[in-house]
Write a structure and sequence with these properties.
single chain, mainly alpha
């Protein structure tokens, strides 16, 4: 049987410091929801700020580049996307 030693306690403290949970709170996460690590929260806050500063640009044209993903092919071309009528049967 393994015992909980000082090395384990140090790892626990280092891991806990990665989260914004208040000291003294024991948070038991069973996988359904929970706090995210500080770096994830900071990135989310940066995206939120960008969204608030330029909502149309962020959502309409800049979101893909903001998220570090390539833009969809239809956004890289000046040719409009094909549209289909709701009554089309093709």
């Amino acid at each position: 049987m393994t015992t909980y030693d000082e090395a384990a306690e140090a790892r626990h403290r280092a891991l806990r410091e990665q989260f914004l949970i208040r000291p003294g709170v024991t948070f038991l996460n069973h996988g359904s929801f929970g706090a995210c690590p500080k770096p994830v929260f900071e990135k989310y806050q940066a995206w939120q700020l960008e969204l608030e500063q330029q909502p149309v640009e962020f959502i309409g044209r800049g979101a893909s580049s903001s998220w570090g993903r390539p833009e969809p092919r239809w956004q890289r071309t000046s040719t409009p996307m094909p549209t289909r009528s709701c009554t089309s049967r093709t």
